[in-house]
Every structure is written in C-alpha cells, then in structure tokens.
Amino acid sequence: MTEILLIASACPELALLTDAVGTLTSLGATVRLAAGFDLDEHRDALARTGCAALHQLPRTFHGRSSVVRREARLLGSGEQLWLRSAGDKDLRRLARDAHVLVALDADAVYTVWRLARRHRGAHAVFGLAPAVRAVRADATPPSALTRVRHGLPSPSVLAGDLRRSVRRLPGTVVRAATVRRVLRTSPGARPWRSVAALPALPDRVRAPLAREAAEGMRWAGRGGGAALTLLGAARRTAGPELRATLLEESVRTDIAAGRPPLALTEAVGGWLSLADARLGTNDRREAATALHQALPLAFHRALHIDQLTTPMARDAPAYTRPLLASGALRTVAGTARGRAAAGPPAPTAPPLRLLVMTHGNANFLRLVLRHYEERPDVELRFVDTAEHPELRRLARAHWRVIADRLDAATWYRERLERLLRPHLKWADTVFFDWCEGPVAMLTTIDPGTTRVVVRLHSYEAYTQWPLLVDFSRVDELLFIADHVRDLCTSYVPQLSSATAPRMRVMHNATDLSSFDRPKPADARFTLGLIGLGQIAKDPLWALDVLERVRAYDERYRLVLVGDVVDPEKSGASRQYRDALEQRLAPLVRAGAVERRGRTDDVASALVGIGVILSSSVREGCHVAVLEGASSGAVPVVRDWPFYAGKAHGARTTYPEDWVVCDPEEAAQRILRVTSDADRWQAEGAAASKHALSTWDWSVVRNDFDNVLLHGGQSLPGADRS
C-alpha cells in the first residue's frame, strides 16, 4: 500500500482534490491531508474527498518562545508554516510513513522540501498531477530495508539541526528554569537579572537569554523584573543596534504594565545615536530606520496622552532638547524646503476653489462643509485620505516621511505627486484639519501657488507630528487655543524660524444655539461630566467634587455621559479604569451617580444637568463645557494642570470665575451658585450668553471666512510668533 501525504497551507479546490484522491485510491494508495488552514471550517467537505485522515497543523505561534516568534516575523509565509509545524509529532509520523510527499500550494513547498530532506526515501512533488504520475511510475513501494537506509536525514540536515539547537540552547535552558512558580518569588526571579547582565556573555547568548528570562517573568506577573532584566542585559550589550533594541523592549515592557519606563532616555538616545552614526556614513535609509524607532518611543501615547502628567507639559523644551541634539532629527525637523513660487493671499475673482481635507476624523468639519457647500462664491471639494486606499497607506508610511526628509532615495515623493498634484492644481486653498501624519505627507511635495491652511488641535502637540511637518510649505497654522500654540512653538524649530507660517487661534465650528433649552428646577442639583473615554478627562477628580458637595447635601448627584476609559489603550489606561470602576460602584448603588453611556443627542442629555464639569488635566477648548454653558448649566472648570500657572490656559480660555484650582474650590463654587434657584438660573443664563456670543458657529464662521476666503488679512490677533 502506497502512503501519500498531502500538505496544504490553504484549502485546495475540492473538486480537483476529490478527482485526484479517487485516482490515487484506485492505484492502491492511501491519502492523508495535513492542513495549515482552519480544518474545522472545511472538515465535512474534505471528508467527502476520500482522504483517509485529516490532520490540523499548528496555525499560530501561541505558547512558543519570544525568540521563535521574533524569528517568525522575519520569514515568509511558507517558512512560517514549517516553523509552526516542525515540532508537530503527528506530522513527523505521517511524513516518516509516507512514500510520496505532496505540496498542494506554493506556501507548502518549503515544508515538503524540509520533510523530504529528513525522509529521503519519499518522493517530493508539487501538485496533484505530479503526485499521480509518481505513484504510477513507482507502483511498488520500497522495501522496509530500503526505507530504513534512505529514511535517515542527510548529514547536512543533522548538522543544521545541531547548529539550531546550540543557538537556541540558552533559551531552552532558561525556559526550563524559569517556570512561573519559581519566578513568582523574588528569590527565584532576582538571580536571572544578574545572569543576563554577566560581563563575559557574548551578545548572541545574552540577548536570547535575557528575552527568555523576561518572558518568563511576564508570565509570572513580574513585569517590573522583566523590564529590569532587559535593561541590565542591554547595558552589557556591545552591538549598538541590539543594545537599542533591548532597551526599547525594556521600555515597552514597563509601558505595557502601566509603569514609568526606566530605560526611556537610554532607549531613545540609543536609536538617535545610531541614526547619527548612519547618517555620518551616508547610509540615509538606515538612519531613517533608526529615527523611525526613536520618535514613536519618545512620543508614545502612554507617556503623554494616557497620563495625568507628562514631561512635555512640565517643560517641553527640556524634554525635546536631547532629541534635537541629534543631527539626524535636526535635519528632519529643521530643514525648510519652502516652495518654488509663493502662494497668492487669495483669488481676486470668485469662485474660490476650496479643498477641505482630513484623515478619518471630520468631527469638527460638518458645519464648515455645509457652510461652503451653500456659498455661491465657493467651489468645494472634500477629501478624506482615510477613505482613499493608497493615500491611507502613504499617510501611515511614517518611515518614508522621515527618509524623504533625510534625502534618502525612495519612490514616496513621486507617488505623492501623482496622487496629490491634481488636487493641488485644482485648489486655490487647501484646508487640512488635524496636524498629523497626513499633513507631513502633504508637505512632502511643493504645493506650488496653492495656499495651505492647517489646523492643530490639542492632541497633536503631544505627538511626533509637529516635528515632521515642513511648515515652510504651510501658509496659515491655526491653533485651537493660545496655550496649545505656546506649547508647540516652544519645541518645534520651524515654528520659531523665519520660515514659520502665520499662526493664530481658531475656535471649533460648533452649533451651540441648539443647546439653549429650558431646564427643570431639579437640574440645579445635577452635575454633569460629558466625555470620560480618556485618562486626560480624569473623571476621578469629578468624583472627589461630588463627594464634597454630597457631604453638604445628598440631593446632589453626578450624571456621566460617554464611554469610560478604554482599558486596551495601555497599561496605564487599564489601571485607571480599574480604579475608576472601584470608586464608581458604591456611588452608583447609592444613586449618587448615573451612568448614561454614549449618546448622539448631547443637547437632550444636558437639559437635566445644572452644573457642567471639566475635570480634565489638559484640553484645547473643552467642547462639552461650551455646550453645557450654552445650555444654561453653570460651568465649573478645573485649572487644567498641564497648563496651570502658565501664560495661557483654562483661566485665559474661559471667564475667571468659571475656573477652580482643586476639588474643594469646585465644591464651594457649586454650593455657592446653586444655593438659591434664582442665583443658579442667573449664573446659567450669563454663562449661556457668553458662550453663544463667543463660540457659536454664527460668530466663528466669520473667522473661517476671513482665513479661507480672504487670506486672513483682517483677523484680529494674527501674528508670526
């Protein structure tokens, strides 16, 4: 009886397989199939093909070591199939018994080749037709003695297996010694930190040893020990790239556990030094690669976005000074290419051709787009780069942006010319909302005579993007608030240079008039917090305020509108979410807090809210406060800690009496303005009048017209900081 083993990485064509299996069976063969795809999805259909047995090959690297998973990322899909399957005992048994090994698709060829080198007595073919020919050509299976003689692996295979075993020996030993029950204890975990940092170890041994030990510590719930192990090993590592990689792994281990990363400065510095060294040898592509590792690490969202404090808020120039000491980064962030021809301030004759762009976030553009669609003197075009497959991919090509700034030869600029030049030729003015990667992409090419207007909100100021945008190709840079402008100009070289664009503040386009609705009398005792999906919103601060006012009068309660902090964002988010849920549980049971979840009808939710809170540590211009104030709710705004005590912040964004410094002062303001129904209504009416006269779309749209239609020549407060 001839044994046939079919190996497939994807489900084969069932009709062809059925015909071939029938033919092979009629020739006296037994056919078995080993599947790299999900066998359960196709088991019934495959069972009808006549295969004598179906075997599921491993489909993931779950449970495999970090060394193996890291190796897999560098391999093609065919080699990955073999790496997953090489240790499968059932596959080895099936291959040992097989007379013919058959690859049913290209990704299975490598696995069949590797098996054939181990079992030299079997034929190895690619495809069903060659399998049938092989059986017909050799109808008599080899004798047992022949199969034993030819079934041994070749010497080269044995030598290769030995080399791989030696290379993986440190990891194997460490995995055997770092079981969870050992590493859960300090005496069991501490020695591995010392072993990984031994001075005599070569890098090829130290790195896998440290990674395996760190992985074991993570499994045992000792993330801090894992980070320290990687850090100690990195400091003893000679190779600069491997050292920077281990330092980065230490940082990301700390971040995943929600702790401040100990190795951050060393990791970022290591990549920057590597970028400078590669740039010094004119290896610009590799310099871009090193810089591409450094910047996302230095501006990781877990360090600046998902935190209640950040070094960027404390002293942005001090934080970025070591980064900008890198020659490679100075080249990227400081080189102003300008444009061949200056753009005119505005067209002299209508219609103005206005191109409005964003990338997947048009939240603040609805009124803007409607306004310019209705104007007869404007021809409008809207492009969301996230909805254009190729532009979406290029906007995310962060390495190519950096490589282009370093003058590394890539196809990036030419591709952008093809995709963006038709839009730029058509438009008189381009308005791009959100200053992120797509703006860096846009400023990679010369906009010609087209005016470019970019709007920067609060979020982008804590990312790498202001350092990667070529602002010499931007005519107007609009900020959500003065304090955001102050932050960006303090550390972005181009914004303090002679080529800086005109900079000004532009409020959000918000229809606040629709929020002005009558409130019931009992709304006086209802506090509202709208939006709590980020740590920066700090709803725990609002609970501190609630507990203080309820200590005076238990009629006060808090309504939470919106989704709570997403625990999947980072380790810090997970920890904050857990602390918040623990505080909320008894307050919800007592009726002191009502959780309404997310809503698309904020105006209706605000009808029953008498006091609107802003508990955030940072904001640009808190839209929920504007909406709440417009509804007649009394605003109580925390003096946002990221900007408190600086030239601009919450106290220069809102009227002075809206802003409080701590939960105690917030409670005192609430009790004072709500102590009497008439006073509460008067305070709410005053807040509504101020909000509608300052931030409503009926007011703000004139500023948009001035900038987008008239070149911004008469907008008050314009400057070239």
Biggest sheet details: 6 strands, parallel
Q: Which secondary-structure class do the elements indicate?
A: alpha/beta
Into which percentage range does the β-strand content fall?
5-15%
- Arrangement of strands in the largest sheet: 7-6-8-9-10-11
Helix content: 40-55%
Number of strands: 17
How far apart the termini lie comes to 86 Å
Topology:
Blueprint: E1 2-8, H1 14-26, E2 29-35, H2 39-47, E3 53-56, H3 66-73, H4 77-85, H5 89-97, E4 100-103, H6 106-118, E5 123-126, H7 128-137, H8 144-150, H9 155-177, H10 180-183, H11 186-196, H12 203-219, H13 223-235, H14 240-256, H15 264-280, H16 284-298, H17 301-304, H18 311-324, H19 327-334, E6 352-358, H20 366-374, E7 378-384, H21 389-395, H22 398-405, H23 412-426, E8 429-433, H24 437-442, E9 451-456, H25 465-468, E10 476-479, H26 482-491, E11 502-505, E12 526-530, H27 539-552, E13 557-561, H28 571-589, E14 593-597, H29 602-607, E15 611-614, H30 623-630, E16 634-638, H31 650-653, E17 659-660, H32 663-674, H33 677-695, H34 697-708
Parallel strand pairs: 1-2, 1-4, 2-3, 4-5, 6-7, 6-8, 8-9, 9-10, 10-11, 12-13, 12-15, 13-14, 15-16, 16-17
Helix pairs in contact: 1-7, 4-6, 9-12, 11-12, 11-13, 12-13, 13-14, 14-15, 15-16, 16-22, 27-32, 30-33, 33-34
Explain this structure to me?
The chain is of the alpha/beta class and 721 residues long. Helix content is 52%, strand content 12%. The chain is built from 34 helices and 17 strands. The strands form three sheets. The protein has a six-stranded parallel β-sheet with strand order 7-6-8-9-10-11, sandwiched between helices. A six-stranded parallel β-sheet has the order 14-13-12-15-16-17, sandwiched between helices. A five-stranded parallel β-sheet has the order 3-2-1-4-5, sandwiched between helices. Helix 24 links the parallel strand 8 (429-433) and strand 9 (451-456). The N and C termini lie far apart (86 Å).
